[in-house]
Every structure is written in C-alpha cells, then in structure tokens.
Amino acid sequence: MEPNTIVAAVLGILEGLTEFIPVSSTGHVLLAGRFLGFDSPGRAFEVVIQLGAVLAILGVYSTRLWAIFSTAAHDAASRRFIAAVLLAFMPAVVIGVMAHDIIKTILFETPVLIATMLILGGIVLLLVDRWAQNPRYSRAEDFPLPMAFKIGVIQCLAMIPGVSRSGATIVGALALGADKRSAAEFSFFLSMPTMLGAFVYDLYKNRDVLDAAAMGNIVIGFICAFFSAVVVVRWLLGYVSQNGYALFAWWRIIIGSVALLALLIG
C-alpha cells in the first residue's frame, strides 16, 4: 500500500473521531496531514471526507429522521424542526460561497492560525460549559426559529480551521439556552445539510485538479471516516449528558499548544 494511502486512512479515522466532538476535525486533519507530509490537491480531501462522517449520522438517526420527515405533511412540529435546521444552514451557504477561495488558499494553509484557534476555542468552550446553567431547552426539536438562525450564524465562525463546526454550534446552542445533550443533537442535524453542501461545492470547485490517485485517497478517507464516526456518535450523547464538554476543551488546548510549539521550533 502506498504511504499516501496509509496516511489517507489514518486521516479518515481521525476525521470520523473528531467531526462531532467540539475539537475541530478539519484543524486536526490539516495539522496531522502537514506533519505527515500528506498531499491534498486543492485541499479537497479534508472537506470531502467529512461527508463520510455525516453518513454515520444518517445511519444512527435513521429512525428519528424518518419519523420527522414522514410526519411533516400533517405535523407542525416536524415542519418547524425541518425549517429550523434549514434556516440555520443558510448563513453557511452565503458565507461559504463568498469566502471559499480565501478559506482554502489562505486559512487552510496557515497552521499557526489553526493551532491558535484550537487553543482559543478550547478556552471559550471551557468557560461556556461552566457558565451555561438552567437551560430552557432539552430537545433539539424545540429550538425556536430565531435561535436556530443565530446558531447558524455562529456556525460560520468554523470556516476558520481550528474553530470547529460542532464546537461553534454547541457553544452557540449552550449560550442560547440549550442543555448539553440537545446542543450536541442540533449540531448533529445541522451537520447534514452543511457537510453535504460543502461536499458538492468543493468537488465542483476542484473538479480539474482531482486525479485518480487523489480520488482514491478520498474514497479511503471517506470510508474510514464513516466507521470511526459511528462509534463516536453512539458514545457522545451519553458522555456529554453526564460529564459536559470540559474534556474536549482541555484536549483542544493541549493539542493546539503542542502543535503551536512544534510549528514555532520548525
């Protein structure tokens, strides 16, 4: 097996393990890829394999998703929840399309920024996890539309690699009155249209630079991300309900500090 293929599998596993916990999967994959010498044309690999992790959500939540969509025609609550997720998704569409080239050619190529965002995001997550008390919402389906839209706006901060899409949405939801479990669940549901949109748009933008080898690495990373994400999704909700997000905050701070030190000493 080619070294780049092995690294693609490792990065895929890393993507799946970190996509839904608030530690920045993209930041981890970009930093790991840099230190491992992984070559990714157009940085498409790091974006496209995220859909593998999102498919894990579809598998784990298939029954719940079916219940929502099958009752939408006659159930106002189901329609409102679908509208809330789509409304939260819209800011990412606008900002993602407008800033795509800047994100991929500048932000993705600035590892010191990524490491710094890991540290700062960890500090913010630690503070919000301790501060957010007396939540008003215990079910993701109950989030009001204005709250969903605000979470979607906050999600756009995650276009800076190292911030974390799940971290931004979870912190936003906690700050706006969600409990720890429903914050994670809404982040799960919002990841579906967000990552699907990023997958389609990034493949389109990079269609001219992806050769057979690059596509092969993407397929391997995609599959590895799916299976490792299934494990995390099944475990995460129970863990955060009991323990909160402090573990992930400290992980971000430690990994970001180690990466920043390694980068600064060359």
Report on the structure:
One of its GO terms (molecular function) is undecaprenyl-diphosphatase activity. Catalyzes the dephosphorylation of undecaprenyl diphosphate (UPP). Confers resistance to bacitracin. The longest helix has about 30 residues, at about 210-245. The mean pLDDT is about 90. The protein has 12 helices and no strands. With about 270 residues, the chain is mainly alpha-helical. Helix 9 packs antiparallel against helix 10 (about 180-205).
* Fraction in beta strands: under 5%
- Contiguous helical run count: 12
Distance between the termini: 29 Å
The share of residues in helices is over 70%
The number of domains: 1
User: Could you list the spans in which at least 5 consecutive residues all have pLDDT below 50?
Assistant: none
Strand tally, please? 0
> Rg to the nearest angstrom?
18 Å
The rough form would be described as globular
Average of the residue pLDDT scores: 91
Helix/sheet category: mainly alpha
The H/E string reads HHHHHHHHHHHH
The biggest beta sheet reads: none
Features:
mainly alpha
Question: How does the SSE layout of this entry go?
Answer:
Layout: H1 3-18, H2 25-36, H3 44-48, H4 50-60, H5 62-70, H6 76-105, H7 111-131, H8 145-155, H9 165-175, H10 180-205, H11 212-243, H12 246-264
Organism: Paracoccus seriniphilus
Function: Catalyzes the dephosphorylation of undecaprenyl diphosphate (UPP). Confers resistance to bacitracin.
GO biological process, one term: peptidoglycan biosynthetic process
